[in-house]
Predict the 3D structure of the following.
Amino acid sequence: MQVVILVVMLSINLPLYAKGLYEGEEADECYKPPVDVDLLDNCFSNAARNSNRKLDALIRNTSHQIKKTILGSFDVKDPDSPTIGEVYSQRFLDAQIIWKQYKTQLCLAVAGQIPEDSLTYSQSLDQCQINLNKRHMAEIEAMGFEAGE
């Protein structure tokens, strides 16, 4: 009975225009029958935590690779100036802070379409963050810096 109610609530609460941020393999896995309502939040929060860890590792690795592969003085007139890679890396890291703030605010807005005390609010918030993390990781990977040791 709880599974049917949960699925009906989920389909009623999610407008069509926002479903893309709520859907994902994590939702498919967490809602796989038999659904244990008590474990749903743990399933989604663990998936979100793992997604954040993967993103943070990619950001650290990319920053390291930028510094390692882009050499040369940022200010050619001052040989003691930081390297181009150091400047690029710092700007990249600064941009990640802003992007994470954007992700948080966007997912709060999108999940705000669901009452905060509903069964699916936190799960929708987590799935949104996971999906945005995946898209952002693809953007970072498109920068072309190979994984290093």
Remarks:
- Residues 1-18 have pLDDT under 50 and may be disordered.
